[in-house]
Write a structure and sequence with these properties.
Two copies of one chain form a homodimer. The first copy, chain A, is an alpha/beta fold and 240 residues long. Helix content of chain A is 38%, strand content 18%. Chain A contains ten helices and ten strands. Chain A has helices at 30-39, 51-58, 91-94, 106-112, 127-137, 154-170, 179-191, 195-201, 203-210, 216-220; strands spanning 2-5, 21-25, 44-47, 66-70, 98-102, 118-122, 141-145, 176-177, 230-233, 236-239. In chain A, the strands form two sheets. In chain A, strands 8-1-7-2-6-9-10 form a seven-stranded mixed beta sheet, with helices on both faces. At the A-B interface, helix 7 of A face helix 7 of B.
């Protein structure tokens, strides 16, 4: 079983996704929102690329059954029901609802890896359950940080590194690391005693703090508040 | 002054190279060979992409004045004078000669960044002088690891991280790090007491050990055996 991590969210090389499970990670904040929303009873999540597509998709559902969520430049989109803070996605708002989500980095990542064998939604919030799922699948794994506007993202990589650490810790089968996954693991080890520090040092974390959204950083760096493992399949994310 | 590092050797985004100095790093082994060869008296180095182009380029020089060097699958190319081990490039062979070099990763990297404002050849062998040069230029910097067959390379990134550390250590001007350069710096700090360990753990380092070329690892992880800073300009690398 090989674990690789792609540091930059460009389209994976052809062939790399066949027979691989993929874990998409966008700690700040798309995959944290997804995991949180499903844990609070949301029915399913439809990630879409554009704001226009979000409004269009909403029209195909009965009124009152779907909510629009997401951000542009980290802020709530005019006409949307919810922004991109997991703290907004509480049971009272999302229980039993379908969510249509569009974000700058995270929702795009799912479309880039849509040909993977299984596409898992990873975050700190469900990291131990995600590791368990990956270990159980027993196939090669590509961790796919959503990045920061196309660039390397420190917080997503540290989350990937923690996932690697948990999988290695299970210790019952040989795991092959690439240079990239080894580096991610080393980066995690530097922050493991203080995960939120990785988020605070990151470019995107600093932007959120500047926008008054700093409370999302400790929120998104909580580990294992749920054991849900959402799966992306045919354009929709549902709890496994 | 911003320091960024591009973890994967794909063509940089348009515009990113204008007004930036670039440091190309291929610890194992192209930039180590270049720095070593020039320190041993080689006249200049012409990096070319293909074996055919190397033979073709050689024809344009008087017999006996140019040497062919490089590798494919880490081995010397049939008909070439030298392989890709810096230990081969000693004064007795290269002094006063022009070198035509083709390697799997390193020589290609120069062509990818050829529109940079200044293109510096970096390695552990000349790292302090390279840091001094970068600091003196006082412009934004892109570190460009040559990677391992298009993938992230641990040893090049650790070398980039050491360069960042040395530049930060000069401490007289504000330096902005990106998430990627911050990660490279953290990775360097993990290996700084034992640089050769980063080379031994790396995918490419392991390949070289398997091929009986393991002695190149400690050789290429020596720091500051020369103060030369080679510059790539108009297709040719010369000592600054």
């Amino acid at each position: 079983m090989e674990i690789d991590i792609q540091f930059v969210p460009s389209p994976p090389s052809p062939g790399i996704l066949s027979n691989r499970a993929v874990v998409v990670i966008d700690v700040l904040r798309a995959t944290s929102v997804m995991v949180h929303a499903l844990s609070q009873g949301a029915l399913e999540i439809i990630p879409v690329a554009t704001v226009e597509e979000a409004f269009q998709t909403a029209k195909s559902f009965a009124p009152g059954t779907a909510l629009l969520g997401g951000e542009r430049e980290s802020k709530r989109i005019p006409g949307f029901d919810l922004g991109n803070s997991p703290r907004e996605y509480v049971s009272g708002k999302v229980n039993g609802k379908r969510l249509i989500l569009t974000t700058t980095n995270g929702t795009k990542a799912f479309h880039l890896v849509s040909s993977g064998e299984e596409i898992i939604v990873g975050s700190f919030l469900n990291i131990r359950a995600t590791a368990q799922r990956c270990f159980g699948l027993d196939r090669d794994l590509l961790l796919f940080p959503s990045g920061d506007k196309g660039n390397f993202s420190l917080e997503d990589t540290v989350c990937g590194g923690m996932l690697i650490d948990l999988i290695l810790g299970k210790g019952r089968k040989p795991i092959v690391l690439t240079d990239a996954s080894r580096a991610a693991h080393i980066l995690y080890e530097q922050f493991k005693a203080n995960l939120v520090e990785a988020l605070r040092l990151s470019n995107h974390g600093k932007d959120l703090i500047d926008l008054g959204l700093g409370d999302d950083l400790p929120y998104c760096s909580q580990t294992d508040i749920t054991s849900l493992v959402p799966i992306y399949k045919e354009g929709v994310i549902r709890a496994h």
